[in-house]
Amino acid sequence: MRKLSFGPKRTGATRLLGLMFAALILTVCFAGLSAPAQAATPAEQFISDNVQNGLSILINKQLTKDQRRTQFQGFLLGLTDIKAIAEYTLGQYRRTASPGDQAAFDDAFKDYALAVYQSYFDKFSGQTLQVTGSYPLPPDETVVKTVMIDPKKANDPKPLQVNFRIANKNGRLAVVDFSVEGVWLGEMERSEFTSYLGQNNGDVPTLTAMLKKKAQQIK
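RESULT FIELD:
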């Protein structure tokens, strides 16, 4: 396992996280242009149903750039179960962490994820995501498969593959993981975080402090 680096240079996980948030932005902005008229599964419909809400924020000319960013951030938090991702990334160390340490880590992970998202907010334009299908993931999850279409690479034979894992929690759907080219955010972050904790006596507060520091470096 690679070591978790907290220097100014971004790790592969940080870049992947940014790509995944960008992909989620593209899903909200452009899914209505490329998705089938009738979604084949509730999970695909879930993605489609959120298109107008996201668009209403992004095209609202009465909002300043900062207001648009803040409102869209809130929209993403409602669409994505970041807490579930945070819980998964701690692995076995979550079981031995105190409730207070768990909560502090969850908050730090959310701030870190949103810092990465904000750093990519203005870097993607013109691309679209095309829904190519989905498959069930027992007991109550679905993976929605998409490919990213870049207008600058109209004849690209291998468009970027972006998948979303959608969970059904008591009737509420939420995005709980993302993948780019088969690499899942949760697995990558879990590998890096647990490796770091293994080298630091399982001290979750130390990881929390490092995540806070990294978020500040990204902003």
